[in-house]
Specification:
alpha/beta, Rossmann fold, DNA polymerase, domain 1, 6-stranded mixed β-sheet
Length: 212
Amino acid sequence: MIVDSNEPDNLYEALKNLLESVDKRRLTPCDYLIGGQICVERKTVRDFLNSIFDGRIFDQVARMLETYESVVVVIEGTIPPLTPREERILAGALAGIVKMGASVVSVRDKEQTAWFIASLARGGRRGPVVARRRPKLASMKEVQLYVLTSIPGIGPKSATALLKRFKTLQRIFQATLPELRSVVGEKRAEKIRRVLEAKYDSEESVRTASLE
C-alpha cells in the first residue's frame, strides 16, 4: 500500500503496525492507494465541508474515478451542528459523490481511519488477478468502453475520447504513441502502449502490473 507523503506521520506509523507492506511517497490524486486499484481520499470534517462549498471535492473525485477502479472518500471526525441550509447542501453533496461512483465512509478519528484502511487492504483480492469481473453488457458501446477501461489509468472519459477519435477498438490498438498522446496525454498513451506491447507471462505471480 502507498501513503501520500503529506499524510500525518502518526497515521502512517499506525498503518505500518497493522500491515506488512506500507510505503510513503508522493501520491496523486488520492491519499492512499491499495493494491493499485482502491484509491482512498482522507478528509477531516472541516476540510470536507470546505471542499463542498468551494466545489473542490467533486473535481477530486472525478480525477480519482478517471484513474482508479474503486474510490473511497473517508470523512474523519464528528460533523458539527449545521444550519438547515448547510444540512441540505451536505446531503446533496454526499448524494452527488455516491452518484459519481465513489463510496463515502465516516470515521471517528485517525485511529479508526487506520483500522478502516487496513481492513480494506486485508480484505483485498488474493492471488493473481488478470481482469475485473465482467458485468452484463447490453450494447456494443458498453463492450467497447469496458475493454478500454480495463486498461489501468483509462477511465470512462478517456475511453470515450479515444472512441470518438479513432471510431473502433482496432484503430485505437493500432494507433501510434503520438496519435494516442494527442487524445489522452503522455502518461495514459504510454500505459496503453505498454499494455498492448507486453508479452504474456503465465508464471507471473504479482497481482497487478506496475504501470504508475
